[in-house]
Design brief:
Blueprint (H helix, E strand, L loop, with lengths): L2 H10 L12 H5 L1 H12 L7 H5 L3 H15 L10 E3 L8 E2 L12 E2 L6 E3 L1 H12 L2 H4 L3 H23 L12 H22 L6 H6 L13 H29 L1
Antiparallel strand pairs: 1-4, 2-3
Helix pairs in contact: 3-5, 5-9, 5-11, 6-9, 9-11
């Protein structure tokens, strides 16, 4: 459905703002050094041992996975689950209309300069870590948000199919297991972007200076958010490495 739009978009548009192929190659080349720099700058604030969990070679691990993740998150216009991804789905690009009558209205999105063919979970991964506080993502909060997105999306897709005369037994058109795999890949990819673009020169002092900047991602101005992000990334990267290893073994 809507493949013609996706094909035209692929021809005319680029990928999202943090997609590997839109970034300066120097960012990927500098991953190990960027990780070492970030650890050195924030070591004294790491009271939960997250740097030890990630290990000193975490930047290298991300570097080694970058092309694999890019391939997995770069669907063609006719591939399953391909959609138009906003590409810069941060809080400042989402407006919540104020109403005096209490009527609920949808979010108004702006700034489509980075739109392109991608996966919906790429926008979800970016928005959650750009805009949601660490305490709200803790204790299952992250998956509550992801599942809410999936439930609403699958309900809307089912309604559209019914209107088009393709209704039938209800089933998730974006299965949860597939969506969660996409989400994990997207979170790891967002980390790759952040490490290479922002965290290579980050310090606690710079975080403090930007702490009230609403246009700056929480993970780039709040230490708790940054460390909580790292906890999730470490888990997802380990899973991605395992999945990649299995694929390589199957392929021989």
């Amino acid at each position: 459905e809507n493949q013609d739009i996706l094909i035209k978009s692929q021809e005319r548009l680029s990928r999202g703002s943090y997609h590997l192929k839109t970034r300066n190659p120097k960012e990927l080349a500098g991953m190990p050094e960027a990780w070492s720099s970030f650890v050195k700058a924030f070591q004294k604030l790491d009271t939960n041992g997250i740097f030890e969990k990630c290990g000193p070679d975490f930047g290298k691990r991300i570097q080694n996975l970058a092309e694999y993740i890019c391939q997995k998150t770069s669907p063609g216009p006719t591939d399953p689950y391909a959609t138009l991804s906003h590409g810069d789905f941060k809080a400042m690009n989402c407006f919540l209309p104020a109403t005096k009558d209490g009527e609920q209205r949808g979010v108004v999105m702006v700034d489509f300069a980075s739109i392109g063919v991608g996966l919906g979970m790429q926008d979800v991964a970016m928005h959650i870590h750009h805009a949601v506080r660490a305490e709200d993502l803790a204790d299952g909060g992250e998956m509550l948000l992801v599942d809410h997105y999936l439930n609403v999306l699958n309900d809307l897709l089912q309604q559209r199919q019914s209107k088009n005369g393709k209704g039938g037994e209800k089933q998730d058109l974006y299965p949860r297991d597939v969506a969660l795999q996409h989400y994990q890949l997207a979170v790891a990819d967002y980390f790759r972007f952040f490490l290479g673009r922002f965290w290579k020169s980050a310090t606690p002092e710079l975080f403090s200076k930007k702490k009230d900047s609403k246009n700056t991602a929480l993970i780039n101005r709040d230490v708790d958010a940054a460390f909580a992000f790292l906890e999730r990334v470490q888990t997802y990267v380990t899973q991605i490495e395992m999945d990649r290893k299995k694929e390589m073994e199957i392929c021989g």
